[in-house]
Amino acid sequence: MYDYLKGQVTRITPEYVVLEQQGIGWRLFTPNPFAFQKTAVEQQVFLHMHVREDAQYLYGFTSLDQRELFRKLIQVSGIGPKGALAILATGNPVQVIQAIEMEDESFLIKFPGVGKKTARQMILDLKGKLGTLLDHVELPSTEEELPLFGANPYKHELEEALLALTALGYAERELAKVQPQLEENEALTTTDAYMKQALQLLLKLK
């Protein structure tokens, strides 16, 4: 019935966002509400309407691929809208598609609420049936492993920075205290940046 809405995001909660359009606030459940921003700029949100006997829900997505994968997931026995949102919130669509096509159960069970039975059902129901979602996905070779959740693309730079700090005389136990914060900081992309941030954190420990 609905394809998308354009409006201003006026509220962001851990579960949903409110998109205001012509004086009406639409409550949209979405994988990651914090992917949206409260600004005066009009935003486009792709919709899926889910109707139950006792309620009607609108689900919002930042891209067509995200919505299409959501629709595929809720067709799988054992996965409802909340489960599909949790999967999309944890992993990006490309990772999920790759895991399904490569029958990587060990990767799929990392998602919240997905056990071995559900992972196998996802593969049985969806492998080879994802249509246009496969158009822009490059499947790794069988020798390659899918990246773990939260994998740091600048892991090498971080390791170099930690080695350099060790050479400067910092103890491993000190570095272990600041490493989690460094790994979570997506703005850090170079060895130098990691070192500068680490030094600032280490000074706070003194």
Automatic annotation (TrEMBL):
Entry-linked InterPro entries: DNA_helicase_Holl-junc_RuvA_I (IPR013849), Hlx-hairpin-Hlx_DNA-bd_motif (IPR003583), NA-bd_OB-fold (IPR012340), RuvA (IPR000085), RuvA_2-like (IPR010994), RuvA_C (IPR011114), RuvA_C_sf (IPR036267)
Superkingdom of origin organism: Bacteria
Subcellular location: Cytoplasm
Predominant cellular place of this UniProt entry's protein: cytoplasm
Region named Domain III: 153-206
One GO MF term: hydrolase activity
Every Helix-hairpin-helix DNA-binding motif class domain range: 71-90, 106-125
Keywords noted in UniProt: Cytoplasm, DNA damage, DNA recombination, DNA repair, DNA-binding, Hydrolase
GO biological process, one term: DNA recombination
GO CC annotation terms, alphabetical: cytoplasm; Holliday junction helicase complex; Holliday junction resolvase complex
The keyword Protease belongs to this UniProt entry's keyword annotation: no
Recorded domain comment: Has three domains with a flexible linker between the domains II and III and assumes an 'L' shape. Domain III is highly mobile and contacts RuvB.
Family: Belongs to the RuvA family.
Subunit and interaction comment: Homotetramer. Forms an RuvA(8)-RuvB(12)-Holliday junction (HJ) complex. HJ DNA is sandwiched between 2 RuvA tetramers; dsDNA enters through RuvA and exits via RuvB. An RuvB hexamer assembles on each DNA strand where it exits the tetramer. Each RuvB hexamer is contacted by two RuvA subunits (via domain III) on 2 adjacent RuvB subunits; this complex drives branch migration. In the full resolvosome a probable DNA-RuvA(4)-RuvB(12)-RuvC(2) complex forms which resolves the HJ.
Physiological role: The RuvA-RuvB-RuvC complex processes Holliday junction (HJ) DNA during genetic recombination and DNA repair, while the RuvA-RuvB complex plays an important role in the rescue of blocked DNA replication forks via replication fork reversal (RFR). RuvA specifically binds to HJ cruciform DNA, conferring on it an open structure. The RuvB hexamer acts as an ATP-dependent pump, pulling dsDNA into and through the RuvAB complex. HJ branch migration allows RuvC to scan DNA until it finds its consensus sequence, where it cleaves and resolves the cruciform DNA.
Official protein name in the record: Holliday junction branch migration complex subunit RuvA
